[in-house]
Specification:
With about 280 residues, the chain is α/β, with parallel strands linked by helices. Helix content is about 40%, strand content about 15%. It contains eleven helices and ten strands. Helix 2 runs parallel beside helix 3. Bound molecules: adenosine-2'-5'-diphosphate (A2P).
Length: about 280
């Protein structure tokens, strides 16, 4: 398998160009799945306080022979802890749960604009970075006006914005904004999520044709497309074979027209986003 390239964040941290999503992986089975992912070659592991599996991620890290310094662990602050003091405590609690001294990346999970406290939460992340609890700070599910506000009120832009992104939700405006501001876009649900949605996307003719042409799977075409858009995908799989398959996307290239054809699948709007960040409340 080809080596995983890196992506450099605005603050200089270099991340692997693909990471591993862990939502829903808990307990002994979760440890097994994450341990297997690390064995397959994943080095960036994405978790969240609200996944209730930071402990599972920590157990997999301790089980793995890969040194902590070679891993990149990312977690997220829940909406109920946006208030400054609560946010600092939650970051500390996240670290205790994972059994880690620091996170490589920590994100505000959702903006929850109704609560109007995400700037407060951002100040807590900025300070936690200064205290050495977090190497890089970022956000998730942020739209341009919220990012503008963070910059205006704190002078600090996030290094990363993790958003839902797959061929049926290709997010051209947010990608353009992030790129113009030196923010790396990460993709959650890069394969379209689980269940029938994923199936429907994978059965799209454009993806099936490209898969046949390059002797890859539809999932690999999606991940390669995201990579060529400059996006860092975080695919999730419990299955060692599919975990390995999802890493094996660095030995071929889609043409610009093919990238465009996948991007245009968005126009079909067969699948809408999970939650509009302007209205979605997740605490
Ligand atoms: P499984 O865990 O059984 O592999 P997303 O990353 O977009 O959230 O999608 C995750 C879903 O896609 C999971 O249900 C996962 O199932 C499935 N999946 C992951 N990798 C592949 C793949 N290479 N081919 C087909 N399905 C996949």
């Amino acid at each position: 398998m080809s080596e995983i390239p890196t992506i450099t964040l605005r603050d200089g941290l270099q991340l692997p160009a693909i990471g591993f999503g862990t939502a829903g992986m808990r307990g002994a089975q979760g440890v097994q799945a994450i341990d297997s992912a690390i064995n397959q070659g994943y080095r960036l592991i994405d978790t969240a306080y609200n996944y209730e599996n930071e402990g599972t991620v920590g157990a997999a890290i301790r089980r793995s022979p890969v040194p902590r310094a070679d891993l990149f662990i990312s977690s997220k602050l829940p909406g109920r802890y946006h208030e400054y003091g609560k946010a600092v405590t939650a970051i500390q609690e996240s670290l205790y749960r994972a059994g880690l001294d620091y996170f490589d990346l920590y994100l505000i999970h959702w903006p929850n604009p109704e609560r109007n406290q995400y700037v407060d939460a951002w100040r807590a992340l900025i300070d936690a970075q200064k205290f050495g609890l977090i190497r890089s700070i970022g956000v998730s599910n942020f739209v341009p006006e919220y990012l503008d506000r963070l910059e205006k009120e704190t002078g600090v832009l996030p290094a990363v914005n993790q958003i839902e992104l797959h061929p049926h939700h290709s997010q051209p405006e947010q990608r353009d904004y992030d790129r113009a501001h030196g923010i790396v876009t990460e993709a959650w649900s890069p394969l379209g999520g689980k269940g029938p949605k994923t199936q429907r996307i994978q059965e799209t003719l454009v993806l099936r044709d490209l898969a046949e042409k390059y002797h890859k799977s539809a999932a690999q075409i999606m991940l390669r497309w995201e990579h060529q858009l400059g996006v860092l995908p975080l695919p999730l799989s419990h299955n060692p074979g599919r975990q390995a398959q999802n890493l094996d996307i660095f030995d071929f290239s889609l043409t610009p027209d093919e990238v465009q054809a996948v991007t245009e699948l968005d126009g079909e709007r067969q699948v809408t986003g999970y939650g509009d960040p302007r209205t979605h409340e997740e605490l």
